[in-house]
Every structure is written in structure tokens, then in C-alpha cells.
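subagent[fold] <- orchestrator: predict structure for attached chain, return C-alpha cells only, no commentary.
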Amino acid sequence: MATQKEQTQDAKMIQLALYREYGFQPCLKDIEILESVENPDFPWHLERAYVEIKGHFYTIYQNEFGGLTVQKY
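subagent[fold] -> orchestrator:
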């Protein structure tokens, strides 16, 4: 289980990815991380996260260069 600090850091990264991809920036309290997978080569870096924001579901992927890709479903 991730600590509160790690969850906040992940939520901020997700917030930035959503802003870059869709042009909106949800409040941190609205971001609910359902599941996250850390990169085994770089601890404390997300590889993938499943997120719910106000009833909408997103998957965020991070590539090896640190870029984030957002998929809405």
C-alpha cells in the first residue's frame, strides 16, 4: 500500500497528464486511484494507474522516457 505522500505525488502526476491531454485539471481530492503499478526498474515511479474522477475512468501509462499517455474509457 502506498503512503499518503506517494499517493499525493501520483495524483499530482495524473492531474498534470490530464491537463496536457484533455485541457482540464481536476482537484486532487477528486482523483481516486483504483490501482497503480510501479515500474520495477525505477521504484516510486508509476508504470500504470487506473483512475476514477467524478464517475469517469482513465488509464494512465508512463513510458520509459517519463512521458504520460492518458486513455479514457
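orchestrator: received. Logging for downstream: The longest strand covers residues 31-38. The chain is about 25% helix and 40% strand.
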